[in-house]
Amino acid sequence: VQLVESGGGLVQPGGSLRLSCAASGFTFSAYYFNWVRQAPGKGLEWISRINGDITDGTYYADSVKDRFAISRDNAKNTLYLQMNRVKPEDTARYYCVRGTQGDYWGQGTQVIVSS
Predict the structure, then answer these.
(1) DSSP 8-class letter at 107
(2) Structure confidence at residue 52 (pLDDT)
(3) Torsion angle of alpha carbons 3, 113, 48, 40, nearest 10°?
(4) Region 98-105: what's the mean pLDDT?
(5) Do 11 and 111 contact (CB within 8 A), yes or no?
(6) Is the pLDDT of residue 81 over 80?
(7) Exposed (0-12), middle (13-18) or buried (19+): which is 29, by Cβ within 10 Å?
(8) Would you tell me how many other CB atoms lie within 10 Å of the CB of residue 5?
């Protein structure tokens, strides 16, 4: 099992960024996925989840709702997080996490929101 995040970087407040998580070694479409972040000096924060079934139900933390959008491409075994109208408080390391139990994590990708 491997999860590899990419797409992080420096972005100005109000800007946009799209994170990707490339998965391999298992049946991607069979699993829920989450995005979890950790800001400097703080604990882990769950921010979004997408179901693995045909409904592709999505869920968001209040802190990112209406600004971020989670999606998946099962044909490409890839999870995405579209980040819009970013704020300095979105600065964090973002992790792709498999399943409701969080049994596998990627290494994370760093996002810095700063002018």
Answers:
(1) -
(2) 77
(3) 70
(4) 91
(5) yes
(6) yes
(7) middle
(8) 22
